[in-house]
Structure formats: structure tokens, C-alpha cells
Write a structure and sequence with these properties.
heterotrimer, A mainly alpha (about 230), B alpha/beta (about 250), C mainly alpha (about 220), A: about 230 residues, mainly alpha, MetI-like fold, B: about 250 residues, alpha/beta, six-stranded mixed β-sheet, 10 strands, about 35% helix, globular
Amino acid sequence: MLEPAMDAIAILIDWFPYLLSGIAFTLALVLASLGLGVLFGLPMALGQVYGTRIVRFLVAVYVWFFRGLPVLVLLFLFYFGIFPALNLDLPAFVVAIVVLGLRGAAYQSQIFRGAIQSISEGQMIAARSLGMSRMQGIRTIILPQAVRIALPGWSNEYPNVLTDTAVCYAIGVMELLTRTSQIVSQTYVTMPIYLAAAGIYILMNYSGMKALHILENRVAIPGFGPQKGDTHAR
Amino acid sequence: MHDDDYILKVEGISKSYGQIKVLDSVSFNVRKGETKVFIGPSGTGKSTLLRCINQLTEPEEGRVWLNGEEVTHSGSRINAFRQKMGMVFQNFYLFDHLTAVRNVEIALIKVRGMNPKAAREKALAELRQVGMEDWANHYPAELSGGQAQRVSIARALAMDPDVMLFDEPTSALDPELTREVLEVIKKLARDGMTMLVVTHEMGFATSVANEILFMEGGRIAEQGSPEELLNDPRFSRTKQFIGQFREYDRGA
Amino acid sequence: METMLFISDILLPALLEGLVITLQLIVAAAPFGFLLGIGIAVGRTYGGRATEFACKAFVTFIKGCPLLLLLFMLYFGLPSVGISFSPFVAAVIGFICCNAAYNSEYIRGALLSVKEGQMIAAQALGMTRTQAIRFIILPQALRRAIPGITNEFIYLIKYSSLAYMLTVIELAGAGKIVATKYFTYTETFLFVGLLYLGLVTITTVTADAIEKKYAVPGAMGR
């Protein structure tokens, strides 16, 4: 029992730098997904709440499509289908960033939309009564509140996005799971390596959530926004 | 000692929450068909006492007998005893996902193993008793407080209890709804049901009680018939307490 | 015209075969994921300290570990300790674990939201704790958990595609094979996507109907 464990530890030490760069890829995918999610998701949410009928319809279709398809199918569609058809020869990593970003935007837009809609009408009325334009009202009054309200829900996207990045294995992105399976196929040590990888994912999950909670507390305004315990929205 | 006369015997019940002694060696006996009413300031352990009797709260000391059988330390048989001690709560505690009639029949079916058809008949009969038959298929959220409390009384009665325990049955109700619930309890008293009632309704207490027990500081401070407590100069604490209440007694 | 023929004669038959496997995966996993989810939720809420710890550890592991990694463990990892599953069974076990872990979170939240008096009243009528949980607490909690469970079922539909990574030729896999052979990636995966969207939409509609059917005034907690 002891000897295989020692072997596994030796292998893990040997391959640690290799795994470490896998972690970097995984983190990059997570950050891209969350970042692009905000970048596109927030305007989409605004469009869905304040936009014309056509804008609202287009956003709804976009969300329906990107939330309804499995990540695997989206990756295949873009990696093998759409980008080559456009004569774009993109590396798998870039395709993964685009796909996870587009998908993140679909999910996160709905979190932001909920937050915007939860802000009372009086806020906009008060803004307009001060002579603000609609855009000014949105930018200076509605959005700062909405972002704070959305933050806990948005934080909950992190663990989902993190575990989703592993699917990028399917198109050969050199992230943590791809490298894990390469180590397995080269060393023929299976379970210990898999468990170590699981441990790394769980640790990343835990520390990421901790960091996000710190961020939440930083931007919190006393007596404003949702309280703790808004747990596992997925 | 005519032990056999007593349907319920309570002996030396004590209960503390942390440093606070809520019940301090409380003892009393109940004869069949008797109604005992517990009164006294809030926080003197009246509700805890009722819960200690059917072991929803476990007392640290003391024993309880029902029909000569010990209820305390009865292990898994406690569930059989609880069926025989119907309980009515301040906040009704109707099962929110079940209609009125399902509330009344569920324990008959699941606990007593009665067949569903017979249980339904019995449940409807109990609802008729409390004037709620027409509301049988309504959910708790669709009932007024008084109606909900009447259903919860029917639910307890359906188990054919030997004793009914009422824990401030009207405290959560508006005055106009209080009356309909008190009428039901009075009728039960007339029909010879054995009852322990915790209440703040003094008029009701004096009209329905065979004995009033005035509790203070976790003990029975004074006890006697309503006439004694109201007229006998020895019972000064009770009269003082009732006096405070008189001013806003709703005279039910 | 050629495209039409490709779709009707080659693509659709292949995808339908894959769809059947996808449905088999879902039908095999969902009931157990539901029941195990209830078990874990009840264990965490009403179990002893050891049960509670075990259930919590399971949920933390499953939620933190990517599903694909879990599938690899089940299929490629376990044979090293003498346990072998077919690809289909390994996938279903992984899906059950994942579905159960997330379901248990929704059900646990719903259990905790049932008012304390419900348990007290049930016990006062002579019900045992187990009877009270089964007949009074769970029926209320499960109603409140319907939206969450539905959500998880939709996730199950989508992540069932990962079975292809264990060589189960389900819908996504069937699409991949046709697309590679005929070099029709975009059309094929759009079709595959539409079928998934169809499944998701059917689920949403059915779940709404279920929620309406079991709706109880004032007992839905929202």
C-alpha cells in the first residue's frame, strides 16, 4: 500500500511543473469566461431590460441557444465547424476562450438582468426628476446598485465555470485535465494521479470562492444588497 | 390515595434552559373529565409544562403517568402515548401541504394504520364536530386563524385522545376569531373531555375550569376552583394577576 | 438537393440512434440521482454527526471535481483497484453522483425552510421522526425543490454528452462521427444542438406542468 503511494508522490513531484502550467491554462480559461461574461453579459442584460422589442428578442434567442447546448457540442461546433468555415485557423485554446466567454455571457446576463429588475422603479424616477437622462440614470444610479446585487450570484458562477473548463480536454486544450490524462497514459499510474488532480480542482474552487467573498465584502454597502446564504444557484 | 381515579399524574417535573429553571418540581393529578386551566405571567413555564407531559420536551426530572402507565422513560412507546394526548398549539401547526381533511386523517392512516376510507369518514365527522366540514378541501393557507385552529383541534380529536392539551390556543387570534375557538373548547368540556388548557383568557378560564392553577417562577403558586381563587382572601397572587388582566379582559 | 439527402438519409438516422442512447443515459441516471439526492439531503439535515460529515464530504468532492475527471476515474481509474465498468455504466454512475450532489443541495435548502412546527405537530400526533420526515416534511420540501431539481435535470441532459468521452456513442458522439466522415461539422453540430434544445424545452414545459399539478396554496415557499 505504501509503495504505490510513494511512487505516485514521486511522479507528482516529477510532473509538477507540467501540471502547474495546466493550472495556468485552466485559470486563464476561467478568467476569460468570467471576464467576457461581464463584458458581454452586462450590455445584454441592459438590452433585455431597456432595449427595443427586437433587441430583447435577439438577446433571448442568444441566451436560449448558449444555455441550451452542452459545452461539448458548443466546442465541437466552433472548433470543427464555424471557425474553419470562416477560414479562421484558431488554436484550440483561443476557441475555448471564445466559446466559454460567449456561454458565460449567456448565463451571466441572466444574473445581471435579475439584479437590474430587482431595483425599485423609484430609483430611476428619482434620477430622472433630478434632470438625468435615461442613460445617465442607468449608468450612475441603476448599474452601481445592480452590480452589487448581482455579485453573490455572479460569484457562484465561478465553481461552475471552473469545472466546465475540463471539457476543453475534448478539443485538446492543454489545461489541467488534459495534462492529467497525459501523465496517466505515460506513467500507467491512474487513481492517485486522478485524485491529485481532483484535489487541485477542489483547492482552486475553495480558494477562488474565498477570494470572491473578500471582494464581495470590499464592495458591500451597509444594509444594501442580498444577505449571505444565497447559496448554490447554478 | 385513590390512584385509580386519576387519568393523568404529573410528579415533580423540572426543566431548565441553561441557567434558567423554567419548571421547578411541578406536580398535579387530573381526574377523568376534569378541566384544569393554567394561568400566570408569560415565561413561567406553562407551555413547557404541557410539552413535558407528552415529552415533546424532555424534562430533567419528574415522571408522568397516563392511565397508570408511565409516559416518561417509555422509549419508543412514547408515540403511542402521544396519540392519546391530543395537543393544540398556539400557532396551529397545520400541515401546510395538506387540505383540512387530509390534515385530520393523515395520522389515522399513517400512524394508526386505519384504511383510507374509514379514516376519511372519521376525519369528516371530526371536522363536523368543530363546524369545519364545509372547509374540508381547503388548504391551511386558505383558512382564517380561527378556522385553522378548529381544524387542528379536530386533528387532535381524531386520535381519540384521553387528554387534550391546549397550549394558548387563542393567543395568535384576533378577538373576533377567539370566540369561535373557545366555543369549541367549551363544548368539549361539556362533553366530558379531560383537558389541560394554558390560556390568558380569564373569563373563559373561570367559566370552563374545574381547577385553576396559577403558575409563577416555574412553580404552581396557587391552585383552587375558580370560586375559591376569586373569593378566598388566601389567594392574593392570583387575584392580583387577574386584576391586571380584567382591564382588558375580552370576556369570552 | 444533396444537402437534403444527406440530412434525411445519413444525418438524421445516425443522430436518432445517438438520441436513443442519450435518453437511455438520462433515464438510467435521473431516478437514482433524485433518490440519492433525497437521501443525502436527509442525511445532512437529520443524520448523526458521522452521516452528516460523510454526506457533506461527498457533496464537496462531487461539486469541486469536474464531471469529466470523475468519469475518467470511474472508467480508467477504478480498474487499477479491480473494479471495471462498461463505458455506459461508468457514465451513468458518474451522472448519478453529480445529479444527486446538486439535487441534495436544493432539497436540503427546502428541508431547512420547512417550519419547525410541522415536525412538532407530527410528533405530537404520535408519528415517529422517520414518519414525520416522510409524510410531512419531505412532501413539503420536495415541492419547493421542484425548480432546482428541474434545473439539475436540464444540466443532466447537457452533461450526458460527456459520456462520449468514454466512447459511448450518444447524441454528441453520433454527431461527431457523421461530421468527421462527411466533413459537415457546422450543419451536424447545429442539428445536434437543436435536438438538445428540444430536450431542454420539453423538460421545462413538463416541469412547469408538474409544479402546477402539485402546487399547494401557501406551501410553496415563494
